[in-house]
């Protein structure tokens, strides 16, 4: 659905995006991760036709982002932090306005309100909505044209943990129904939970690209922490036969309360690979 090859965006001497390549398959949730200024938003801006690349190429469902923007428009939609809702209108009226704009049937409005869990609040003015409700309404608005690819820039920024979880569930649900999702986030746990694959961006370049699981396994320790009934903590190495015997001994005696893997977190991997911003 998305094919990016050597994509660049330079602002004078600033190499915001400096030759990145990746592809995203249908129904995949793909995360762009990186420090402030790493080039995430610039990448999404180029892919959605909001910014012209300095070089390289990008294709959406086979169409070139520079020469075929009209073919791409009906296939995509986006949620960006600088987007606004009509605060003095109700949630339903906000969606109805966009439904008319996209020539979508009026029934789509109620369908989307239901999907994002806003049916009960549909008649209320948006200015009375919480940040989480506004964000869900923005996503509903971005789904009006049934996009095959949804671009989300920091979708859970500023949301409390419960609202963020609800939004992640919604994104996962959309992906299960076949929508391809390309998102940016600063939250490593979120990327780990939600993304099929992630790319770490640092100073405009991709420094790692893989599934969260592979990234963690490649970097993590082959070890586990065992907590015994006595509340003692023991570290065992998974490649040490002597530790395997110790583990077996504790198990036979029923001494083990819990075992925690020492696999690295996505954040560990990120800090190791992307370090600090330049
Ligand atoms: N219009 C512009 N003019 C000049 N420099 C720009 C412009 N837009 C972005 N940049 C620079 O390009 C680099 C990448 O910015 P970008 O917004 O893509 O980063 P980001 O990874 O999305 O960061 P954040 O997490 O803060 O949103 C930064 O150094 C930024 O200052």
From TrEMBL:
Protein topology in the membrane: Peripheral membrane protein
GO cellular component, one term: plasma membrane
Database matches in InterPro entries: AAA+_ATPase (IPR003593), ABC_transporter-like_ATP-bd (IPR003439), ABC_transporter_ATP-binding (IPR050763), P-loop_NTPase (IPR027417)
GO molecular function, one term: ATP binding
Any one Pfam family match given in the protein's UniProt record, by short name: ABC_tran
Keywords on record: Antibiotic resistance, ATP-binding, Cell membrane, Membrane, Nucleotide-binding, Translocase, Transport
Compartments, record wording: Cell membrane
GO biological process terms on file: response to antibiotic
Record domain ABC transporter: where: 2-228
Major location category of this protein: membrane
Entry similarity comment: Belongs to the ABC transporter superfamily.
Name this protein carries in UniProt: ABC transporter ATP-binding protein
Gene source species: Rubrobacter taiwanensis
């Amino acid at each position: 659905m998305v094919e990016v090859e050597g994509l660049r965006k330079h602002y004078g001497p600033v190499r915001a995006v400096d030759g990145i390549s990746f592809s995203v398959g249908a129904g995949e949730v793909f995360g762009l991760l990186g420090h402030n200024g790493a080039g995430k938003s610039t990448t999404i801006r180029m892919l959605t036709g909001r910014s012209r690349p300095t070089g390289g190429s990008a294709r959406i469902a086979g169409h070139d982002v520079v020469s075929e923007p009209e073919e791409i428009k009906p296939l995509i939609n986006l949620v960006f932090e600088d987007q606004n809702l009509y605060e003095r209108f109700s949630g339903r009226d906000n969606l109805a306005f966009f439904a008319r704009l996209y020539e979508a049937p009026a029934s789509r409005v109620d369908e989307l309100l239901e999907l994002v869990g806003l049916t009960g609040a549909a008649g209320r003015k948006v200015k009375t909505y919480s940040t989480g409700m506004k964000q869900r309404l923005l996503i509903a608005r971005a789904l009006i044209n049934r996009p095959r690819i949804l671009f989300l820039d920091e979708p859970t920024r500023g949301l409390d943990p419960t609202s963020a979880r609800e939004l992640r569930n919604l994104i996962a649900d959309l992906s299960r129904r076949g929508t391809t999702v390309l998102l940016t986030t600063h939250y490593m746990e979120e990327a780990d939970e939600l993304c099929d694959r992630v790319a770490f961006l640092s100073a405009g370049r991709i420094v790692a690209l893989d599934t969260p699981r592979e990234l963690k396994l490649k970097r993590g320790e082959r070890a586990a922490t065992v907590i015994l009934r006595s509340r003692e903590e023991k570290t065992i190495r998974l490649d040490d036969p002597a530790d395997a015997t110790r583990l077996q001994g504790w198990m036979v005696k029923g001494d083990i309360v819990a075992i925690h893997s020492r696999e690295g977190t996505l954040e560990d991997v990120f800090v190791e690979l992307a370090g600090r911003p330049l």
